[in-house]
Amino acid sequence: MSSKTKLIFKNTIFLYFRTFFLIFIGLYTSRVVLDLLGVEDLGIYNVVASVVLMLEFVSSSLTNASQRYFNIGLGKNDFDLTNKYFSQSVGVHFFISLVVIILLETIGLWLLENKLEIPEDRTFASFWVYQMAIISVILKINQVSFQSLILARENMSLYAYLSVFEGVSKLLIVFLLGFYDYDRLIFYAFLLLCVELIVFICHVFYCRLKYSESNYKFYFDKSLFREMLSFVGLNIFGSISWSLGVQGINVLLNVFFGPTINGARALASTLGRYINQFINNVFMAIKPQLIKSYANGDSKVMLIMAEKSSVYIFYLVLIFVLPVLFDTKFVLDFWLKEVPPYTVGFAKIILTQSFFWMLAIPYSFITTATGKIKNIQLYGRLFTLCSLPISYLLLQYNLNPYIPLIVVGLMDMFYLAYTVFDVSKQLEFKIERYFINVVKPIVFVTLPLILIVYLYFSYIYHQVSSNSTLNFLCLGLFSVFVGLSFVFLVGLQKGDYFIIKSYIKSKIA
């Protein structure tokens, strides 16, 4: 097995266990937060923070842009060039954070005070939650250069440790929240901000101590600044379009249905968020090698890596998510003391949507590697942005809160199709290749697996035992067993058997 493959396996395992640990903590803490804050305050926090979270996704797009440049510098073993990229990146992010502050304290504040449905007795709390969320976003933006360098260096263990610290800190927040009786919503937002500050400091100090290329030196290259700002600008446009189309749904639901529905969506989104974090983390282990392959002139290797990661991560998520989709009500009942109306339906839609969203990720990585991101960020993300006006128009005729989430899922399908089409033009391969190497194996595994699990759920599930927890565990084990069987029988290519066999032998030996 090559050193690249071993590194990907190692990083994937780190991120894999980190994610499951955080899922466990996150589900528990969100349950207690619901109990302590109540559905209305949780809904207020979700909708108020979403105004800011629309721009928080700017930080993820900045990470995407910065990591691309750092990977190119490191792929060439040119640490001086990497330091120039880093120094320029710090300057770009500081400039962007100033622009973000102006936007959030003007347009964002106006939206909060004039357009959102906030109960009068909670306007004071919502204002301070909003201000603390702004500071959190500014910290995230200025943290980007340091986090991107850690990811480009493929130090996934540190990334995992910091994430675990963040998860444990949020668990401690829940504990402290129970002893506070004044305004728990404000206190909750303040403690979350403290965690963000500590994580920011850890990123900065670790990079300064460990990586010489993170020593900031004032550097300004006009052409590089324009290139980076153009690249970042396209990423930001794509992220804002995504945020308006997805996070903007929170505002739309608030306007039509009030904060209680926001609370239901927040809880359903928690399940989806942890699944998406798992997806992101696994792809994160692949991304540096994918970009470095392109930097070394191995476009064919890059494309194969994107295809294989699409298929195998889809299998992995499908096997574990399928039982949750079939009995979402049990999962929510087990997790929460009281399940708000619409939460079950929201959760099913959000989890289903994740499958289409994940398939676009490796191909968006390819456009990041080539630097040709204009089409998918400018035109592709228009599909996602359209979710908001389309949902608004449909809600005028049918007041059904499920409509906006279904629209978002459909737009994700269009975005996936456009992304693959754009990459096929860039790398000059026929679109049939995607259907043969990605769609075909996924369909051959997914359709029979869903059918068999459906038959089990319909005719055997409730007959296993009178204990619903035991029934669900059996459903999960059945899904894993049948899913892995189909993956090994029809879902793998010949070369993949050799890789897996070699990996298992290396661990046993």
UniProtKB/TrEMBL annotation:
<feature type="transmembrane region" description="Helical">
    <location>
        <begin position="42"/>
        <end position="62"/>
    </location>
</feature>
<feature type="transmembrane region" description="Helical">
    <location>
        <begin position="12"/>
        <end position="30"/>
    </location>
</feature>
<keyword id="KW-1133">Transmembrane helix</keyword>
<feature type="transmembrane region" description="Helical">
    <location>
        <begin position="124"/>
        <end position="146"/>
    </location>
</feature>
<feature type="transmembrane region" description="Helical">
    <location>
        <begin position="309"/>
        <end position="326"/>
    </location>
</feature>
<feature type="transmembrane region" description="Helical">
    <location>
        <begin position="158"/>
        <end position="180"/>
    </location>
</feature>
<feature type="transmembrane region" description="Helical">
    <location>
        <begin position="442"/>
        <end position="462"/>
    </location>
</feature>
<keyword id="KW-0472">Membrane</keyword>
<feature type="transmembrane region" description="Helical">
    <location>
        <begin position="90"/>
        <end position="112"/>
    </location>
</feature>
<feature type="transmembrane region" description="Helical">
    <location>
        <begin position="378"/>
        <end position="395"/>
    </location>
</feature>
<feature type="transmembrane region" description="Helical">
    <location>
        <begin position="468"/>
        <end position="492"/>
    </location>
</feature>
<dbReference type="InterPro" id="IPR050833">
    <property type="entry name" value="Poly_Biosynth_Transport"/>
</dbReference>
<keyword id="KW-1003">Cell membrane</keyword>
<feature type="transmembrane region" description="Helical">
    <location>
        <begin position="186"/>
        <end position="207"/>
    </location>
</feature>
<keyword id="KW-0812">Transmembrane</keyword>
<protein>
    <submittedName>
        <fullName>Membrane protein involved in the export of O-antigen and teichoic acid</fullName>
    </submittedName>
</protein>
<feature type="transmembrane region" description="Helical">
    <location>
        <begin position="346"/>
        <end position="366"/>
    </location>
</feature>
<feature type="transmembrane region" description="Helical">
    <location>
        <begin position="401"/>
        <end position="421"/>
    </location>
</feature>
